[in-house]
Amino acid sequence: MELILQPSLPHQQKAVDAIADVFHKTTIESPSVYYANPQITTYIDGVGANIKNIQDANGLSVEYKGYSYDSKCLNLDIKMETGTGKTYVYTHAMYELHKRYGINKFIVAVPTLPIKAGARQFMGDYAVKRHFRDVCGYEAEIELLTLEPAKNKKKGRQYFPTAVSEFVKGSSRNSNKIYVLLVNMQLLKVAKGYMLSRDDYGTVVEGFYRPFNALRATRPFVIIDEPHKFSREQKAFGVIMDELAPQCIIRFGATFPEITIGKGKTKRAIQEYKNLLYDLNACQAFNQGLIKGVAKEHFEPVSKKNEKVKLLSVVKNDVATFQYRSADKPTRTFHLHVGDSLSVMAEEFSGIMIESIDRNCIELSNGLTKNVGEEIDVDIYMNSYQEQMLRLALERHFETERSNFSGRKFKIKTLALFFIDDITSYRESSDGKKPYLLRTFERLLKEKLEDTIAVLSDSEHEYRDFLEASLSDIKACHAGYFAQDNSSSDEDIAREVDDILNGKKQLLSFRDKDGNYILRRFLFSKWTLKEGWDNPNVFTIAKLRSSGSDNSKLQEVGRGLRLPVDECGNRISNEDFMLNYIVDFTEADFADKLVEQINSEIPETVFISFRHIAAIAAKMGVDKRDLMAELLKKRYLDPDDSDMLSVVPENRVKFFDEYPLFRSGVVSDKIKDNNKLKNKPVGIRKARFEEISELWSILNRRYTIWYEEELNSKIRDALTYILESEGVFSEQVITSHRDVVKSDGEQMSLLMDGGVQYTIKNSLPYGVFLKRISLATNIPIPVLHSALNNYVEKHGRLKNSFFNEQSAGIIISKFAEWKAENLMGHFKYKKTNGNIGATALTYSDGTVRKEIAQGRIGTKVVEGEPMAKYLYNTKAFDSPLELENINADIAEVVVYGKIPRNSIAIPTVAGGTYSPDFMYVVKKKNGEKELNIVVESKDVDNMTGTRGLENLKIECAKVFFDNLSSQGYTVHFRTQVNNKKMLQIVNEVLA
Question: For strand 221-225 and strand 105-110, is the pairing parallel, antiparallel, or unpaired?
């Protein structure tokens, strides 16, 4: 098959014209040597005026307009969202610049090998050349020269790199040739012995001994693909500027480097553009139907163990300290070094090792970086969870494949991409480790093929043939590409890699030249294909064992956003297609973040018209004159000489926070401000702490729960009742949640869609099952075993599959419910021996800390100095009620403050601990008596809306503080809801 390119697509032609029009009516001097480009004069009043006109014509936001002059080089930027044809556009631009101005020496710089392979494949394709010649009418043809590293560094005479030599020798007088040198970032280096910077070659090209000097003499135009990888501080960009000294740099990308502008309150991060000519952002791409929609889907965790591993600290190049925490196991600390496996903490981490240890982070063998303070969920590394993700990916793949194959005149080959983090889970390794993921995938694929074949109709005979061919050769259906493959000597692996990187047409085809089916359509990679590689017919992406990282969501889905092509190579643009994007439960909010990122790319308004103010006033239900007066009074807007009002720069963030309807392009609840400053530590006021230190010390003593002896017999009865309850024993079922990101033509939206349910056949050994329940409930294993024996004697043998995480979780949950209903009044608290040690506010010697992480006090912050009596120097809070408490000035209060999150460990009968929200020290007006108050604030109108577990914790707290008072230290515990002011609580206590 041949890819059929469509000429003059409006969104692509605008970008091509924008670049070519920059040089309209500028002075162009013929080259003095045959191998150089013409010299283009870039006066400010020439090129600069053209750039401004182009920006106006393309409707760029005011903040992106303007001409940035650089005496060394003309900079031009084109922003095009992933999947909209960036490579086609810069190739087309080279043809157009050659046709109009005679430019025929271009250097294309790319950051990675997959991008390089894709660019080489496209520009060197005969069908692409024929398209530009026969369809677009260009008389010239691209002569593509790809610079590759030297394979064999032999001693003796070295020859000038062939690609550079041919590029330099190419004549500007040859009107039929456009010379393009394709180079990856790694080759753009200046150092002794490096290919382009050495000058000891045995041959000379046009009098030059050094390749960089020869390239500079051609006065090239440089095209940079993926500019966020080529920041101006990055070495490769410096080499381009200093060694190549291009006349012009044109950057094409969906993402650009970020820079910080402004100071203090106006400080914010923006994308660093230099003469942006065209802005096709993600919102426009989705709205115009230029790319697929996205449907995110995930499973909730299989187990309810809630195991987490936290990176506590690191010593560079030496040791990383982890803390392992589990709901039913003791907390443990591990010290690991480079090369150590995380599986010493939990077997689910098998295959994950520490690659390096930096100052503030570690890099794992799965390519992920974890910073100090970050947590890792163990559940997402469970093989059973991975199996269900594979099953779901295959489910979605075959749904789509069947639709793309059957009932179409021209079929669409459907591909799926799997990102994994451990190469040995897919490839056979030298240490004999079994590739469990590969074996699981092949087993599930076989099952799914058999199930799908069984339900096909008689009219789907051709699809049946394709699936039966797949069933007969499972291994031919999948392939992998990993960084290690580049050095592999295995011929089969080499063929796989070549097919994936260079065989796009083969992957899009159903049959080879001999008429045999091309079955390969499931591709595995260890993040190597996450950026740069793409195939338009990827309809499913599964991120197995992912991390919930904060990488660009658009970059992650970018491998599957392009609109598909059919078996004849035609791009299908008149249908709605969906990319199935499958993640683990740590990225349950992926779709929300994707919508947020898309909307955040829309430039914020810098000028507001009177008509716009009137429209917003109508939406707000206020008078337009009142709204305008309000905005002027707050200095959010300044009158302009025209019929516009400008946004005051230093108040910009406040303005859009307080009046989000003024944001351009999308509905207010779809945008969040990404320019807010990062959380800063909250300072602890030493003088205030001294006044509350006694209360803090008492609250941080350690206590245990003591139950009445008579409860032992009641527990046995409770177990019998729980085991007899309906639905306790069943096979484990996992359910997916599916969110669809779609556009209605104006804005992005998020829709709920139907998920799937699967039965998990993995069971727990009986002993593990009992231990799991015992650890979570503190019920002795013999008591559990006895209760189960009684149940079996009465009801008969239980299936092995019933001993699973789900059944254990139900028993644990029901026992917690029983405790909540039956234990109140039958327990008390007793203080344990031992020192308090370090706390959230103090060091181990009792001295107060200078500061505490903001997240432990509150997730939100408002400006302003807190009351002098407040414990902290910052107003950090979690709810409006908490902020109201912080701002309340109560005469009787000596000192008050929020209790740091999870800092006070009050044991509860439900398991786990409880920590209230506020602590107060108050005095009567006459100053005769000092009292302590601890408050639990609930942002609800009354306590009837709180959950049973929350109520149970509060009831335990009441018992705890009553016990504390009976032991000689009086603390009044109160619960606060929305309709109750803090002053009322203080007055009640003082009465």
Answer: parallel
Provide the CA 598 distance to its chain's centre, in angstroms: 13
8 A C-beta contact, residue 154 and residue 120: no
> In the chain, helix, strand, coil percent, each to 5?
40, 20, 40
Residue 672 confidence (pLDDT) above 70 = no
452-488 confidence digits (pLDDT tens): 999 999 999 999 999 999 999 999 999 887 766 555 5
What residues contact residue 726 under an 8 Å CB cut-off, 6+ apart?
none
Contact 936, 916 (CB under 8 A): yes
Structure-token pair, residue 730: 């069943």
Three-class secondary structure of residue 301 per DSSP? coil
CA distance 918 to 884: 12
Cα separations in angstroms, 355 against 326, 333, 370, 492: 25, 20, 11, 28
Using DSSP bridges, classify how beta strands 913-914 and 906-907 pair: parallel, antiparallel or unpaired: antiparallel
- Interval 34-59: pLDDT, tens: 999 999 877 656 788 899 999 989 88
For residue 696, is pLDDT > 80?
Answer: yes
pLDDT of residue 214: 95
Please state the pTM of the whole predicted model: 0.61
Phi, psi angles (nearest 5°) of residue 830:
-130, 135
Angle, helices 766-777 vs 781-795, to 10°: value is 120
For residue 920, give the nearest of 858, 971, 955, 978 by alpha carbon.
971
Contact 595, 748 (CB under 8 A): yes
Asked if the model's pLDDT at residue 21 lies above 60, the reply is yes
Three-state SS letters, 821-866: HHCCCCEEEEECCCCCCCCCCECCCCCECCEECHHHHCCEEECCCC
In the predicted model, what is the mean pLDDT of the chain? 83
What is the gyration radius of the CA atoms in the chain, in angstroms? 33
DSSP secondary structure, 882-948, as one string:
HHHHHH---TTEEEEEEPPTT-S-EE-TTSSEE--SEEEEEE-TTS--EEEEEEEE-SSSSGGGS-H
Three-state secondary structure of 758-770: EEECCCCCHHHHH
Question: What residues are paired with 298 via a beta bridge?
Answer: 737
Residue 39 host element (H or E): strand 39-40
Tell me if 977 sits within 8 A of 941, measured CB to CB.
yes
Q: At what angle are helices 461-472 and 383-405 packed, to 10 degrees?
A: 140
**HSE (side-chain half, CA atoms, 13 Å) at 724:** 10
User: Are 578 and 538 contacting, i.e. CB atoms less than 8 angstroms apart?
Assistant: no
Rounded Cα–Cα distance for residues 924 and 928 (Å): 6
φ, ψ dihedrals at 168, nearest 5°: -65, -40
CA distances 547 to 390, 543, 544, Å, are 17, 9, 9
Highest mean pLDDT: which of 299-308, 365-374, 870-879?
870-879
Mean pLDDT of 747-752: 65
CA distances from 257 to 28, 70, 82 (A): 32, 18, 16
DSSP string computed for 660-708: GGGSSSS-GGG---TTSPPP-PEEB-HHHHHHHHHHHHHHTS-EEEEE-
The SS3 assignment for 322 reads strand
Q: What is the DSSP string of 42-67?
A: --IIIIIHHHHHHHHHTT--GGG-S-
Integer CA distances (angstroms), 582 to 321, 542, 829, in order:
32, 5, 47
Determine the distance from the C-alpha atom of residue 734 to the mean position of all C-alpha atoms in its chain, rounded to a whole number: 24
Place of tokens 């493959």: 485
* CA-wise closest residue to 307 among 370, 238, 378: 378
